Amino acid sequence: MTQQASIGIIGGSGLYQMQALTDISEVRLDTPFGPPSDAIIVGTLEGTRVAFLARHGRNHTLMPSELPFRANIHAMKQLGVRYLISASAVGSLKEAVKPLDMVVPDQFIDRTKNRVSTFFGEGIVAHIGFGDPVCPALAGVLADAIASLELPEVTLHQGGTYVCMEGPAFSTRAESHLYRSWGAAVVGMTNLPEAKLAREAEIAYATMALVTDYDCWHDGHDSVTVEMVIGNLKKNAANAQQVIQETVRRLAANPPESEAHSALKFAVITPLAKAPEATKTKLSLLLQKYL
């Protein structure tokens, strides 16, 4: 394959509309799990090949429950991605985490109901370690990049728990208070399946959570208008572009070692010599180091 990229970004389509991105091409890939959400945009940023995928499609046509998570991560693996950054809009569950802030979570809570979050099955069983669901090395580079930019109106929150809910409706007030009682920092609808699949694909993964508003627990929530949220989304997208450029610069200069890069070494329980050939073929991209 001629197109290769060591760094991947999954987020809104606006993230790859940055002037510093050059030598751009669209790559349409197929996977054993169907097509990804959209064509992947591959370009050069800070001298490094980078792959961008619009998570919901470039026209935002896919609901969270409809996202082809396995295809998205498999496509990134096909391109040679070793570090994957998720840019995601979230609601805040803490007073101190205000709109326009950025959170780099280190934990997730799964509240999804209808998501396939593993590549395995059909005769091959694997159990990845997931106690630390985010790569701490990559999260550290991302957080350092955010801090170094000193973005106006943005406070960095390094660490915190992301509640991943099913959607597409937002939380009830009772759910929002429950998540707060758990000590969670933000709530969103997409990142946990990505994190699980990235770990199975031996890709380091970290989340840049972009706060658009307080979740419905907040007394002032009723005063939040659609226009305010859209305004925050636009500001967040502009800030995220700067963060991505700085993070890519830092990763290119000093790519960190990640335990994620060998996550399957002891995870596959099924003796591969006795596994179904069709399944080994389907998973060959993930298992090639171990076959």
Structural write-up:
This protein has helices spanning 69-78, 136-149, 173-181, 191-200, 226-253, 277-282, 284-287; strands at 7-11, 22-27, 40-45, 48-54, 83-92, 102-104, 107-111, 156-158, 161-165, 186-188, 204-214. The protein has 291 residues and is α/β, with parallel strands linked by helices. The chain has a single domain, classed as 3-Layer(aba) Sandwich (Rossmann fold), CATH 3.40.50. A hairpin with a 2-residue loop joins β3 and β4 (48-54). The two termini are 21 Å apart.
Order of helices and strands: EEEEHEEEHEEHEHEHHH
- The average pLDDT is 94
In DSSP terms, counting alpha (H) and pi (I) runs of 4 or more, how many helices?
7
CATH superfamily: Nucleoside phosphorylase domain
Pathway: Amino-acid biosynthesis; L-methionine biosynthesis via salvage pathway; S-methyl-5-thio-alpha-D-ribose 1-phosphate from S-methyl-5'-thioadenosine (phosphorylase route): step 1/1
Keywords: Glycosyltransferase, Purine salvage, Transferase
GO biological process, one term: L-methionine salvage from methylthioadenosine
InterPro entries: MTAP, Nucleoside_phosphorylase_d, Nucleoside_phosphorylase_sf, Purine_phosphorylase-2_CS
